[in-house]
């Protein structure tokens, strides 16, 4: 009699295999959780959530410098689309510094706690909703939820009822930029003050057009630097509380009185951020001779870039060549885009005095560059920006400290049209912070807007996707596995 054939997979063996798979899966998940915990605590964090954002190196520098306790109250409707991203981002701040604590309050669900927050922070308006409140020992700054995101004009999509519906499409999330600025604000009692010169053809900080400097002013604000316009054509000199004087792209000649006021400000130990451009070739401002006394040579010409890898239009110069200096050290590996820049270098002096200011070139064009006014000259690399520092003289005290300057041969690269190109925006922040001697803010790359978002779907579309992910795909796997098992069982 033929021997009875035993099935390949007996019930006991099948149960054993199933139990083994479950145990192995649980062990793998446990290992992943433990590794993530140890990495977050002792080495680095793993970002498994789609909402998590890794903080920029400059933000981490700011967060690590905080020594006082900061309470961040998220006074928000938890059903809001932005809430998960906001909370995930703030948790990154808390993970980087335990002195930062997060207090989420949903004003739609927790009326009692919401009333306490409204009373504590004097929230009386009906519009006081969806706020992120930073509190450091009573020094309070409030970020409105509307400021956290950028949206495009309303677009049309089909609603569940089949009727057209208009919604604003999110294009950028500015949470890190705003939150880091808030931390700087609550850690410092008063912002530093930058005076933006007006009256000689300079752009305006309130102009949102391509040639305006609205975004430049916002970049300074993110570094907790307050800006205000200054006109030197009257009787007033540079104010005593002016921590930084900014002269950007003047297109008119300065009067003798204005030049004297600028010269006096520098002699007192002032800080100057000066941006020339090619427009001042036809109409000299008169500032070049003032700067020449400080060892700066502003050449009356324009650099043309002939390396096709370093220009996009023939009129711009893409900068990859940086010198070693605190202003540009964080930009290593990045690029700046300048528009028709003027060469800015050092004045040749055979016997400089012992107390002469130090003038360091910051960036250079490529070796294939020439001058627009002298095309026959052999190509070479031209310096386009310099940093100037007057070291303290023993026994001599300046009214404002020690003189510092950053002089650039272009102003257009920081206007609204070009400031977001490459690392232009970062350079503006580094230059201002070096001039103000804020070493903490000279580390790493600054925060960027998050520009990737979830798809906007109707409720019916969400249900379909949910069934697809939870039903169809797992069901297909089970069906395929069942077919294989049935075939092998035969």
Question: Would you kindly provide a brief summary of this structure?
Answer:
The protein has 490 residues and is an alpha/beta fold.
Number of DSSP-assigned strands: 20
Strand content: 15-25%
- The CATH H-level superfamily of the largest domain is Class I glutamine amidotransferase (GATase) domain
Structural class: alpha/beta
Strand order of the largest sheet: 8-7-9-10-20-19-17-14
Describe this structure in words.
- The chain has 490 residues and is of the alpha/beta class.
- The chain folds into three domains: 13-46; 57-176, Glutaredoxin, CATH 3.40.30; 191-347 and 356-441, Rossmann fold.
- The protein contains ten helices and 20 strands.
- The strands form six sheets. It has an eight-stranded mixed β-sheet with strand order 8-7-9-10-20-19-17-14. A four-stranded mixed β-sheet has the order 2-1-3-4, sandwiched between helices.
- It is globular, with a radius of gyration of 30 Å.
- The two termini are 22 Å apart.
